Write a sequence for this structure.
C-alpha cells in the first residue's frame, strides 16, 4: 500500500449499517459526537457516523468490520486524548494560537502531523477539525498525506481554539 495518499471513499458499494445497540451508540456519541446535531438526532439518524464510515471506514473494510472500525475510533479517542496533549504543550481552550503552534503541539506528542481545518466564524479564524491519520491497517499513526491550508500555516494569523 502506498502510505503517501489519503484514502477516501474506497468502496462506494459498501454501505453503513445503522447501529441498533443503544450502548454502542452512547459510547460512540460520547467520544465521536456529531457537533452539528442534537444527541437524539445523532443517535437516531446516525448520518454523521454513516458519512465517516462510508468516506473513511470502507478503506479499511478489508481488515475490519464496521463494528471494529467504530471500536477502533472509540479506543483511539481513549488513548489519544487531544485535550491532554494540548494542556501538556501549554495550549488551552478559549485562547488563540497560530496554526503552526496547534499543529506542532499535537505532533510533538504523536510524532505525526495531523490535518487541521479552520473556518472563519464571526470574522475570526477557528479550529474546527483535527484529523489524525493511520496506515490502512490502522496499526500505526502516520503524518497525514494531505494537509489543509485553512489554518494559515507559516503566518502569524490567530486561530481560536475553543
Amino acid at each position: 500500500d502506498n502510505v503517501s495518499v489519503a484514502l477516501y471513499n474506497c468502496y462506494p458499494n459498501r454501505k453503513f449499517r445503522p447501529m441498533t445497540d443503544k450502548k454502542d451508540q452512547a459510547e460512540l456519541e460520547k467520544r465521536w459526537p456529531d457537533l452539528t446535531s442534537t444527541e437524539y438526532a445523532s443517535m437516531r439518524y446516525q448520518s454523521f457516523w454513516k458519512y465517516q464510515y462510508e468516506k473513511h471506514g470502507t478503506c479499511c473494510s478489508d481488515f475490519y468490520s464496521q463494528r471494529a472500525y467504530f471500536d477502533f475510533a472509540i479506543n483511539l479517542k481513549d488513548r489519544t486524548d487531544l485535550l491532554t496533549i494540548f494542556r501538556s504543550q501549554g495550549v488551552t481552550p478559549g485562547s488563540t494560537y497560530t496554526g503552526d503552534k496547534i499543529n506542532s503541539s499535537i505532533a510533538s506528542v504523536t510524532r505525526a502531523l495531523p490535518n487541521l481545518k479552520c473556518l472563519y466564524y464571526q470574522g475570526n479564524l477557528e479550529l474546527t477539525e483535527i484529523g489524525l491519520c493511520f496506515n490502512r491497517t490502522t496499526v500505526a499513526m502516520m503524518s497525514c498525506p494531505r494537509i489543509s491550508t485553512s489554518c494559515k500555516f507559516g503566518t502569524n494569523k490567530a486561530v481560536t481554539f475553543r
